[in-house]
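Quick one, C-alpha cells below. Sequence please?
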C-alpha cells in the first residue's frame, strides 16, 4: 500500500501537488482554505520596483503599468511566475522574508517606492523591515485565503478509514486550521501517527498539540523540498 499524504493547500495548487505525489504516494486532497480575489486599486505611480512574496498576489493585477519595473521575488517559484508574466528583470531571494528584505536593502536605491501585491493574510515582518530601512512600501491586498468548512460526511468521504502517513502544511494558517481539525474525534485517530511536513519553522510553530506528531521542517520553503522530504522518509 502506498503512503497516504494529506494535501491541505488551496486549489488549484492542491491538485497540482496531488498530481506530483501520485507517482509514489496516495494523495488525499483536503484544502483547508480557498482563494478569493479582493477588490483593490493600485496606488498611483511611479514605482521603482515590485516586491513579490506570493505568486497568487500577482494574478489579479493588470500588469501593463508595471511590467517595465524590476521585481524582487522571495523565491524561485515566485520569480518564475514574474518572468512568465513578462517581467524582464527579476531578482530572486533565498525563499524567506528575511532574505528578500536583505535583497531589497542591498539592491534597491535608497528610499525607493515599492509596489507590494500581497494577500490579506501575511507576515508583518517584511513591511516592518523595509519601512525601518526607509523604503516606501505600498502594500496592495489582492486576495484572501478563506477557511473551508467541511461537514462530518464530507470529511469521512475524503479521508476514508486508513490512517494518514503524512500531512503537508504550506502556511501558518493551514497549520492552525489543521490543528483544530485534528482535534475532532472522528479525525484524530487517522493522524495520531502522521508525520507533519512543514515548509518553515514558523508553520511548525503554529501547530497546536504538536507533541502528538512527528514534525519535520523542509530544507527550503518550496514544494520540491517538500517532495524530497517525503521521499526520504517514505520511499
Amino acid at each position: 500500500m502506498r503512503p497516504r499524504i494529506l494535501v491541505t493547500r488551496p486549489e488549484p495548487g492542491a491538485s497540482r501537488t496531488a498530481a506530483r505525489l501520485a507517482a509514489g504516494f496516495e494523495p488525499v486532497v483536503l484544502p483547508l482554505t480557498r482563494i478569493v480575489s479582493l477588490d483593490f486599486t493600485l496606488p498611483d505611480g511611479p514605482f521603482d520596483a515590485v516586491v513579490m512574496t506570493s505568486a497568487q498576489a500577482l494574478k489579479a493585477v493588470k500588469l501593463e503599468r508595471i511590467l517595465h519595473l524590476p521585481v524582487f521575488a522571495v523565491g524561485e517559484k515566485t520569480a518564475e511566475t514574474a518572468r512568465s508574466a513578462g517581467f524582464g528583470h527579476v531578482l530572486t531571494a533565498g525563499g524567506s522574508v528575511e532574505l528578500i528584505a536583505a535583497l531589497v536593502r542591498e539592491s534597491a536605491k535608497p528610499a525607493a517606492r515599492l509596489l507590494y501585491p500581497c494577500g490579506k493574510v501575511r507576515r508583518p515582518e517584511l513591511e516592518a523591515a523595509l519601512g525601518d530601512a526607509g523604503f516606501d512600501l505600498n502594500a496592495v491586498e489582492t486576495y484572501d485565503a478563506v477557511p473551508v468548512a467541511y461537514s462530518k460526511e464530507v470529511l469521512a468521504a475524503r479521508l476514508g478509514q486508513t490512517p494518514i502517513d503524512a500531512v503537508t502544511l504550506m502556511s501558518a494558517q493551514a497549520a492552525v486550521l489543521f490543528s483544530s481539525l485534528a482535534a475532532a474525534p472522528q479525525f484524530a485517530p487517522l493522524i495520531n501517527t502522521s508525520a507533519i511536513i512543514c515548509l518553515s519553522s514558523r508553520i511548525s510553530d503554529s501547530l497546536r498539540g504538536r507533541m502528538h506528531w512527528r514534525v519535520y521542517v523542509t530544507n527550503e520553503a518550496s514544494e520540491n523540498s517538500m517532495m524530497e522530504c517525503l521521499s526520504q522518509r517514505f520511499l
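Residues 223-234 form the longest helix (12 residues). The chain has a mean pLDDT of 93.
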